[in-house]
Design goal:
Length: 465
């Protein structure tokens, strides 16, 4: 306990430098999905490695067929066989910053601003997802080492560079390095708090499947007067297919889609009902009024415990200035499915493809160009003793009970940690719903960063006991 107090004091004195280190990282546009930024991903990985080496970690940039991984190890000087060994995971890659014209400050020039209520925020792509988040445990480790000469636990840091693009290299990398990466458990810093004052541990994440489809009708674009009527328009086929994905009650109509989706257990439903959550505020904050998911399910249940079929993009025909009387040859859409429970990504993809084919008339053709793969949902048992330990450390910091919650997002690595390395993931994060991750003007509260660092200091201390 005495140690934790002195470590917290050191962290407080080093806060401004920590912010400067984070900003150096945010300045690098490490967008993993865009090959043009592969060099930036390399640079970000190198910056993290240099920093961890300077702290006394054995750290290296590990090449993969895609973006590199950062792996770093720390063994305390007086470590024994009983010293716990934990893995800490985050990702240095970020989403593209588009649409650029909607940013009030440049996405890769981190900027601190005070809002109307006096809350200090840092703006920039990756401040919340996930650079600001994973730097909380990096800074916590730095403070431990500075204050006491060592970490109180064995630690392995794994900082990925492909999380935002579906982690294509991850499974082979985990398999090839399973001995090196297997720890007692993994702590993942890539999720949210309940609200700005209340800490949370996330115990459910949804899975994810991607697909991309092209409908081809006539061989070439046609004059819509000469051919309109007899010639089938592929956009008409595509929109009809998309419209058929949901019924009136908001349920997905793909046969077999709900295989593996269980009803919410009664105690869980009760626990969620007891959380102070306002559907109205949640939707109101983004300019909406009415929940569009399955009728009869609460907003929390729709996000945390129900699967979805979403169209992420749709294009085809003429979309330039003015008008063009064209009957296009092709129409395209990108779709994703969020999965829950025991839904199988491969089966969902197959079921969708069969459904889509059945909606294409004889004269048109459909092709699928998704990358395949996908990840199933993750559920972590709430009675895991590490959850209990972390929840108490968070409570010590925030002076509020830690909420155990779900999340609608996906972090594919959590399932791979379990399936390949046999590790549970404990998801502790300090993001907020209004951080605008993946959106323009992404931000992270300075308090998220500060209390995140303090929380990890406490968690690391508690793990050593
Ligand atoms: N940090 C998010 C996941 C998340 C979002 C957790 C909101 C908690 C609240 C993560 O980086 C992310 O965005 N993941 C992608 C995964 C995908 C690209 C494979 C997602 O959920 O869309
Ligand atoms: Mn993330």
């Amino acid at each position: 306990m005495a140690d934790v107090k002195s470590v917290l004091d050191v962290a407080a004195l080093d806060f401004d430098q920590g912010l400067a280190r984070l900003f150096d990282l945010v300045r690098i546009p490490s967008i993993s999905t865009d090959p043009a930024h592969a060099g930036d991903c390399q640079e970000a990985a190198e910056l993290v490695v240099e920093d961890l080496k300077a702290m006394g970690f054995e750290a290296s940039v590990r090449p993969t067929p895609g973006r590199p991984m950062v792996v770093a190890h720390y063994t305390p000087k007086d470590a024994s066989a009983k010293t716990p060994h934990l893995l800490f995971y985050g990702h240095y890659d970020v989403q593209p910053a588009d649409p650029l014209d909607q940013w009030k400050t440049p996405p890769f020039e981190p900027t601190v601003k005070e809002d109307a209520r006096g809350v200090m925020r840092m703006y920039g792509r990756g401040t919340a997802d996930d650079k600001g988040q994973f730097m909380t445990f990096v800074e916590a480790a730095r403070a431990w080492i500075a204050a006491t000469g060592s970490l109180p636990i064995r630690a392995t840091f794994l900082i990925e560079g492909e999380e935002e693009s579906g982690s294509p290299s991850l499974i082979p990398f985990l398999k090839a390095n399973s001995e090196e990466l297997s720890c007692d458990a993994a702590f993942v810093c890539d999720t949210n708090m309940w609200d700005a004052k209340t800490p949370a541990i996330t115990t459910r994440l949804r899975g994810l499947v991607h697909e991309e489809i092209t409908i081809t009708g006539p061989r070439i674009d046609l004059h819509s007067g000469m051919y309109g009527g007899p010639a089938m328009n592929p956009i008409r086929v595509l929109t009809k297919l998309i419209a058929a994905l949901h019924d009136k009650s908001g349920r997905v109509t793909i046969p077999g889609f709900y295989d593996g989706v269980a009803d919410l257990p009664k105690p869980t439903r009760k626990q969620w009902q007891s959380l102070k959550f306002s559907d109205k505020k949640f939707l109101g904050d983004v300019g909406l009024k009415a929940a569009a998911g399955e009728k009869g399910k609460s907003v929390l249940e729709q996000i945390w415990a129900r699967p979805t079929a979403e169209v992420n993009g749709i294009w085809g025909g003429y979309t330039g200035a003015g008008t063009k009387t064209v009957l296009p040859s092709t129409a395209h859409a990108k779709l994703t499915f969020r999965l829950v429970g025991k839904q199988n990504p491969k089966k969902v993809l197959k079921a969708f493809q069969a459904f889509a084919k059945a909606h294409v008339p004889a004269d048109c053709k459909i092709t699928f160009s998704g990358r395949g793969g996908g990840s199933p949902a993750t559920e972590i048992r709430e009675d895991n003793p590490l959850i209990t330990k972390a929840a108490k450390a968070l409570k010590d910091e925030f002076r509020r009970d830690t909420v155990l919650m779900g999340s609608g997002g996906s972090i594919p690595i959590c399932r791979s940690f379990k399936d390949i390395l046999g590790m549970d993931s404990i998801l502790v994060g300090f993001g907020l719903n209004d951080d605008a991750i993946h959106s323009p003007n992404e931000k992270y509260d300075l308090e998220s960063f500060r209390r995140g660092i303090r929380s990890w200091i406490r968690i690391m201390g508690a793990l050593a006991e």
